[in-house]
Amino acid sequence: MSSTVKGDALLKSIVSQNESPLTHEEWEESAKKKMKPHEFGHIRSGAGAEETLRRNREAFSKWAIVPRMLNDVSSVDTSINLFGRKYDHPFLLAPIGMQKLADEEGDLASVRGAAKWNVPFITSTVSSYSLEDIAEAAGSNPRWFQLYWSNNEKISYSMLQRAEQAGYEAIVVTVDTVMLGWREEDLRNGYSPLRAGVGKANYVNDPVFMESLTDKSDAGVIQGILENVYHPSFNWKKIEEIKKATKLPVLLKGILHPEDAILAMEAGIDGIIVSNHGGRQLDGVTSSLDALPAIAEVVNGKIPLILDSGIRRGTDLVKALILGASAVLLGRPYIYGLATAGQAGVEQVLGNFIEETRVTLALSGIAKVAEMPSIKLIRQ
Ligand SMILES: Cc1cc2nc3c(=O)[nH]c(=O)nc-3n(C[C@H](O)[C@H](O)[C@H](O)COP(=O)(O)O)c2cc1C
Ligand SMILES: O=C(O)C(=O)c1ccccc1
C-alpha cells in the first residue's frame, strides 16, 4: 500500500477517541480490567522466571536506528512479496489459540479486524472457532494455517487438507511446542485452557479425529486433544513428509539456531519464523531479535524470514526488517485489543501499528520496504 503523509489530522483520526488506549501497555491494562485474572494471566505470562519474555522487549531497546535523510518519503510503500503474492503490510497476525478467552467472538472478530486493513491472519490449530468458520469470516482476506503436529498423524493430514480446501495460502508448522513449557502462572492458578474447552473447534470438526475417539463425550474429546496436541517425537523426517503432503508453502515457526535454519532449507522448507513463542515455551532462550542476524546470514535471502516475539510498535518492526526479516508477526497486542473492544479493538490496535510503522519508515528514510536502503542499526 502506498500512502501519502497527511500530517497530524490523519494521525488523530486513526488514534481516535482520547479515552481509548494508545500504547501496548495501555491496551494490556484495559484487557486486564476486562478479563478474569487467571485467563488474563495465561495470555500475558511467559514460561519459568519470564527471563525470555523480558529479553524479548529489552532486545529491541538495545538497537538504535541510524536514519537516512532527504530520500523523498512523501509516499511510503509498505508492501512486500511472499511466495509470489503481494501483501500490503510487512506483518501478519500471529497464530493465537483459544481466543474466546479474550472475547466471545474470538478469532472471528480478530480476522474481521485484520481484514479491515488487509493484514493476513494465521489461524491456530487450537483456535476457538473452526478453521472453516474463520475462513468464511475472512472473506477475501488472506489467511494461513498453523499446524500443531498430532501424534496420530492422520489427524494432521486431515487438518492440512481442510486448510487447503478452505483457501488457506500457507502452512505454519510450529516446532517449539512439542510439549507445553513450564508455565508457572498457569500452574499456580491450576489453569489449562485446553481443559476449559476453548481450543477444541478444529478437533471436534475433524472427521478423522472424531473417528479416532472411543469416548466421544466432552471429557473424551478433551482427553483426545491432550493425547494429540503434544507431540515430543516430532522430527525432521516428518517435516519432509509434510512438505510432500501439501502444495502450499510450508514455514517452520520457532527456529532460533542457524543450523536448524540450514536443516529447514535442506528439507525444502519455504520460510522460517524466528520465534521463541513470545517467551512462553523454553525460558532462558535468546530473544528472537538477537537470534535473527545469524539466521539471516545463513539463509542469505534464499527464503523469507519472519520474526515474532516482543513486537509492540512500529519501531520494533522496522528494526527487525533492518536486521534481515522480511516481515514480522504481531501477537499479544491484537489480543489485548480484542479483549478490550472486540473487532473494533483489533482494528484500532492494527490501525495505530500501521500508522506508527509508516511514520517510522518515513523518518528513517525508507520509502519502499521492498527496496530497503542501507540503514544501520547501532548497539546502545
Ligand atoms: C495466548 C497465546 C496463545 C498462543 N497460541 C499459539 C498457538 O496456538 N500456536 C502457535 O504457533 N503459537 C501460539 N502462540 C505464540 C504466538 O504465535 C507468537 O509466537 C507470540 O505471541 C509472539 O510473541 P508476542 O506475543 O510477544 O508478540 C500463542 C501466544 C499467546 C500469547
Ligand atoms: O498457549 C500457547 O502459547 C500455545 O501455543 C499452546 C500450546 C499448546 C496447547 C495449546 C496452546
UniProtKB/TrEMBL annotation:
Keyword Ligase attached: no
PROSITE patterns to which the protein is assigned, alphabetical: FMN_HYDROXY_ACID_DH_1 (PS00557), FMN_HYDROXY_ACID_DH_2 (PS51349)
Cofactors that this protein relies on: FMN
Enzyme kind, highest EC tier: oxidoreductase
Domain FMN hydroxy acid dehydrogenase: 16-380
Family of the protein in this entry: Belongs to the FMN-dependent alpha-hydroxy acid dehydrogenase family.
Stated name of the protein: L-lactate oxidase
Organism classification: Bacteria, Bacillati, Bacillota, Bacilli, Bacillales
